[in-house]
């Protein structure tokens, strides 16, 4: 075996530069000086005898070969991390560091119930949370930036393993006086496409809501501008339209201090599946199943809403 192999530190510097697109920001993310990071990448280039990064005063541009090596570096770093995880998993489960991405339509509603339980039951677990929408979360998982993702299905994820935790029913939320005598449930045909407000692109809840309604005209006519569920709720409360929100948000009190009425959506698949997702064949698989159970129990602490709530 050659003694002239890239070091993990050099690969970390290269990956950080690709992700940040700036030497200073990449150095900060690696907790080193800019000169240290730059020197490390130059040493890597000298070692393998090729240019990976084209440097100018304004732009950091990776060569085609540099992009290929960054992809390989992601896998090497992930394998190195999993090597350490194998040793950690052989001891007490759910101890040490665990990095989890959580999508924004779950994080503020489930985490307040989860974190106290984890602190009480797993005091040696250091859970680092990262809130991001679904596709960036899956990319973070693929690149090894996080160990698992708490998200909603269905969603195209590639080669991963997952455990479904529970079903989160969808509700239609509308101003209190529209209609004046609301029924106990709302069918997709009762939704006025000209008044439907949804989250902007990137939020999978938008796609789940549209799929549940199975009305192509909704996708064409709905206004997609909400940056968060709380923003949508404020818009609806001010009479600007109606929206669809998950049960966990209602159960967590998102409609408190508003005059919004919410009714369950009645359709063949009026829910989303909340799931914990991790890399296939991860050495921490048993831990993730254990974490999934804790997540499921934390969600169960919140009683389900009555049908006409």
Layout of secondary structure:
Elements: H1 8-20, H2 23-30, H3 34-48, E1 53-55, E2 60-62, H4 64-89, E3 96-102, H5 107-121, E4 125-131, H6 134-142, E5 148-153, E6 160-175, E7 196-199, H7 204-213, H8 216-221, E8 223-226, H9 229-237, E9 242-246, H10 247-251, E10 260-264, E11 271-279, H11 285-300
Parallel strand pairs: 3-4, 3-5, 7-8, 7-9
Antiparallel strand pairs: 1-2, 5-11, 6-9, 6-10, 6-11
Helix pairs in contact: 1-2, 1-3, 1-4, 2-3, 5-11
Describe the structure.
It comes from Sphingobium psychrophilum. This is Hydrogen peroxide-inducible genes activator. One of its GO terms (molecular function) is DNA-binding transcription factor activity. InterPro entries: LysR_HTH_N (IPR000847), LysR_subst-bd (IPR005119), WH-like_DNA-bd_sf (IPR036388), WH_DNA-bd_sf (IPR036390). Residues 6-63 form the HTH lysR-type domain. The protein has 309 residues and is an alpha/beta fold. The protein has two domains: 8-87, Arc Repressor Mutant, subunit A; 94-309, D-Maltodextrin-Binding Protein, domain 2. Helix content is 43%, strand content 22%. The protein is built from eleven helices and eleven strands. The chain has helices at 8-20, 23-30, 34-48, 64-89, 107-121, 134-142, 204-213, 216-221, 229-237, 247-251, 285-300; strands spanning 53-55, 60-62, 96-102, 125-131, 148-153, 160-175, 196-199, 223-226, 242-246, 260-264, 271-279. The strands form two sheets. Strands 3, 4, 5, 6, 7, 8, 9, 10 and 11 form a nine-stranded mixed β-sheet that branches. It has a two-stranded antiparallel ribbon with strand order 1-2. A hairpin with a 4-residue loop joins β1 and β2 (60-62). α1 (8-20) packs across α4 and α2 packs across α3 (34-48). The protein is globular. The protein starts with 7 loop residues before the first helix and ends in a 9-residue tail after the last helix. The relative contact order is 0.14.
């Amino acid at each position: 075996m050659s003694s002239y192999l890239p070091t993990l530190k050099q690969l970390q510097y290269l990956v950080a530069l690709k992700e940040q697109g700036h030497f200073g920001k990449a150095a900060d993310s690696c907790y080193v000086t800019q000169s240290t990071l730059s020197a490390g990448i130059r040493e890597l280039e000298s070692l393998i005898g090729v240019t990976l990064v084209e440097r100018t005063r304004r732009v950091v541009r990776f060569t085609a070969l540099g992009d290929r090596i960054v992809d390989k570096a992601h896998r090497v770093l992930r394998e190195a991390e999993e090597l350490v995880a194998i040793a950690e998993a052989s001891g007490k489960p759910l101890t040490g560091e665990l990095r989890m991405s959580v999508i924004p339509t779950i994080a503020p509603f489930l985490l307040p119930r989860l974190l106290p339980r984890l602190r009480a039951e797993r005091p040696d677990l250091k859970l680092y949370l990262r809130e991001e929408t679904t596709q960036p979360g899956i990319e973070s998982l693929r690149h090894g930036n996080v160990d698992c993702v708490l998200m909603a299905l269905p969603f195209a994820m590639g080669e991963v393993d997952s455990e479904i935790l529970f079903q989160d029913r969808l509700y239609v939320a509308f101003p209190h006086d529209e209609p004046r005598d609301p029924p106990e449930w709302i069918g997709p045909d009762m939704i006025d496409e000209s008044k439907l407000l949804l989250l902007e692109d990137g939020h999978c809840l938008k796609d789940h809501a549209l799929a549940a309604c199975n009305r192509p005209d909704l996708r064409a006519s709905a206004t997609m501008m909400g940056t968060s569920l709380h923003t949508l709720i404020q818009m609806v409360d001010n009479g600007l339209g109606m929206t669809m929100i998950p049960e966990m948000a209602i159960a967590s009190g998102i409609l408190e201090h508003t005059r919004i009425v919410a009714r369950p959506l009645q359709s063949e698949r009026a829910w989303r599946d909340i799931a914990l997702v991790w890399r296939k064949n991860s050495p921490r698989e048993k831990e993730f199943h254990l974490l999934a159970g804790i997540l499921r129990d934390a969600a169960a602490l919140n009683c389900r809403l009555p049908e006409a709530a």
